[in-house]
Amino acid sequence: MAQETGFTIWLTGMLGAGKTTLAGYIEARLRQVGRKVEILDEDDLQDDLWKEVEGGTKEERITIARRLGFVADALTRNGVATLVACASPDKQARDENRRRIQRYIEVYVDCPTDELIKRDSTGKYKKALAGEIPNFVGITEPYQPPTSAEVTVHTNTEDVEASGLKIFQSLLDLSFMTTEELKVITGTKMKPQPKAPKKGAKGAKPAKAAKPAKAAAKPAKKKGKK
């Protein structure tokens, strides 16, 4: 039964996009219905999981995501709802974790860079723009946006409740949670949404155009009298 109740919600996005805030919101609501929950936040786990890794290079960032993925997989297999808040800007690392973790939802926490700079109370974005912080994701290092995330939230236009509702809908659609649980959390009876057709799926072949009718045969010429 433990294997059927655990799942991982992987929150990816740039610094300041709102991953930690959203993870905390989801955690509190999952606990309302008695779920076992753990948050793995990359900002809190460096000393325990990758003390020797600075995270300044692509290889180091992939290492961080892999280690978080290893822990998330173990928790998921033991019935824990696991929320990972990790920038994980590299598609390679995210794809590896998707293959590793059987019950997995990827959430792209999207926010425009201009808004992130406005929000930033640490001044890191401004320092990166000034060249004072090398290897800064989103400024001097690329962030590769997900192309197949189960959920995309836009924290510059949505409040945390609206973003959370998208995630709960996905959990229901994938049968990771029940309608009864989500009624307690949201106060409404949610219904699973039909699956969208896969990209590239073949549709019905268009009907062939009718061939134009052959021209009527010309009347035979009457033979003249001799």
UniProtKB/TrEMBL annotation:
Name of this protein: Adenylyl-sulfate kinase
CDD domains cross-referenced by the UniProt entry: APSK
Classification via InterPro entries: APS, APS_kinase_dom, P-loop_NTPase, Sulf_AdTrans/APS_kinase
Enzyme Commission number(s) of this protein: 2.7.1.25
Key words of the record: ATP-binding, Kinase, Nucleotide-binding, Transferase
PANTHER family in alphabetical order: SULFATE ADENYLYLTRANSFERASE (PTHR42700)
Function according to Swiss-Prot or TrEMBL: Catalyzes the synthesis of activated sulfate.
Cellular component aspect of the GO annotation: cytoplasm
Keyword match Nucleotide-binding: yes
ATP-binding is among the record's keywords: yes
Regions of compositional bias (Low complexity) in chain numbering: 203-218
Catalytic activity: adenosine 5'-phosphosulfate + ATP = 3'-phosphoadenylyl sulfate + ADP + H(+)
Lineage summary: Bacteria, Pseudomonadati, Myxococcota, Myxococcia, Myxococcales
Organism: Archangium gephyra
